Amino acid sequence: MEGYAFMHQVRVRFAETDAQRIAHHASFVVWLEEARVAYLAAFAGGYQAIRDGGIEALTTGVHLEYERAAAFDDVLTIGVRCSELRGARFRFEYLVEREGVRVAHGWTAHATVDAATHRPTRVPEWFVEDVVRAEASTRTP
Amino acid sequence: MEGYAFMHQVRVRFAETDAQRIAHHASFVVWLEEARVAYLAAFAGGYQAIRDGGIEALTTGVHLEYERAAAFDDVLTIGVRCSELRGARFRFEYLVEREGVRVAHGWTAHATVDAATHRPTRVPEWFVEDVVRAEASTRTP
Amino acid sequence: MEGYAFMHQVRVRFAETDAQRIAHHASFVVWLEEARVAYLAAFAGGYQAIRDGGIEALTTGVHLEYERAAAFDDVLTIGVRCSELRGARFRFEYLVEREGVRVAHGWTAHATVDAATHRPTRVPEWFVEDVVRAEASTRTP
Amino acid sequence: MEGYAFMHQVRVRFAETDAQRIAHHASFVVWLEEARVAYLAAFAGGYQAIRDGGIEALTTGVHLEYERAAAFDDVLTIGVRCSELRGARFRFEYLVEREGVRVAHGWTAHATVDAATHRPTRVPEWFVEDVVRAEASTRTP
């Protein structure tokens, strides 16, 4: 997956399928979150580190385009990259594949708020630096 | 549903089905919770009233026996009764039917804890009184 | 909700909240589906009617923008309208409000396929007519 | 985990937490299923092998006792063993631990049915043999 700083795998649970005998489309939203959490653990001290700093990262947008169905027990690889990061906002892009074949792609948008007041607050500086460093390293030829 | 103080209806969502083309068994656990919340809203000022008093009701046990499958769009009626209530513990019993035919039955067990310390704390007196009154009324011939 | 042919209500379940003490963003995807199913039941003989005709409606895209958080037990009103319908594709738009205040909005895209072969197949004519009639009626001044 | 033929790990997803800031009790039901599927993959050719034989394994009962709360990002180890297997019925037992500390335990009951008719049908012989062999091996001193 060219251009993706990080990859994460999920295996489709039986509970995540529906009566069309495929993974329900809402399951992907949860997988993107799991992949994002794994990205933050790998590159930025973990999502808990943000929360420990009294900051919550809210999800302000979700966009998913489904290209192929996924089935029970499929192993999906999710490419994750942080595509924007400024002020109190950041954005992730995702590519979901099964054995090299595209299954879905999309993005999520996020805003950081003070956990107590829920007012917008800037993304912590260390977080920005960690993510920028991680993303930069994947773009080096 | 004889002996049930309260009844609540749910309609099976498509997302709640699985690749067996029936409602996934974990969905019932969520429906029992929705029915229990509706019971508390009807009889005891709502679950939020308990939380507003600085008390959390934890779920300490779940037991479900499935008698028939439920399908997408089925309307299920859930009978709810509080079968035990003392100290820091209470228990609910449930019967799930579809058009008068039994689909499942079970119970959930709960413990009240202080929301801040998570230490066991007695069920509030007003809650006991409200529930006892509601349950007593259904047993009057 | 001006311009919406149909409205559907959901009440936020406790299971649908997360550790940010708000409704998890993936829950909205399930609510949009419930609202869409209710729309089809009201206007087009129900989703089951499509499936009975040997046709499955796949979800090919989901887009959601979250404007405000929803909390446990909130009652949300979801406006639904079919904004496109041609060939083997259709699209729904949604507005989610709580007591007249916007909470979220978005759209879902769908494709109809033959249930057996999963090949694209045109949306049934009766379905198109039912939906066009329903949507037209809401635009009459 | 003495006496458990198989162990499986899950990491608590953010979507699986609730407004009590702990893993929602229904999430455990899904984890037990994931652990059971992994057990079958390890010992009995996978759950898909049963389905490929035209047999569905229905869940007929779930029992869970929660001893400690689990939190977001906790890694839980689930011990799984098949405790009964005869005719058209089988049963699994589970122990959920976090770093050696008990979090929950329970069981699930299952019945095998013909996928087409949904009539009870005996558990396939090869399945019984595989599971008996796996379980026997763990009890050897």
Furnish the topology, listing elements before pairings.
The structure is a homotetramer of 141-residue chains.
Chain A: E1 6-11, H1 25-43, H2 47-52, E2 55-66, E3 75-86, E4 89-98, E5 101-114, H3 125-139
Antiparallel strand pairs in A: 1-3, 2-5, 3-4, 4-5
Strand line-up in the sheet with most strands of chain A: 1-3-4-5-2
Give me the number of helical elements of chain A: 3
The greatest interface between two protein chains, and residues involved on each side, is: A-C, 18 and 18 residues
* Cα-based radius of gyration of chain A, to the nearest Å: 16 Å
Largest sheet of chain A: 5 strands, antiparallel
- Large-scale geometry of chain A: globular
Query: What's the order of the H and E elements of chain A?
Result: EHHEEEEH
Beta-strand content bin of chain A: 35-45%
Arithmetic mean pLDDT of chain A: 93
List keywords for this structure.
5 strands; 28% helix; five-stranded antiparallel sheet; alpha+beta
Structure description:
The structure is a homotetramer of 141-residue chains. Chain A is an alpha+beta fold and 141 residues long. Helix content of chain A is 28%, strand content 38%. Chain A is built from three helices and five strands, in the order E-H-H-E-E-E-E-H. Chain A has a five-stranded antiparallel beta sheet with strand order 1-3-4-5-2. In chain A, a hairpin with a 2-residue loop joins strand 4 and strand 5. The interface between A and C is medium-sized, with 18 and 18 residues. Strand 2 of chain B pairs antiparallel with strand 2 of chain D, so a sheet runs across the interface.
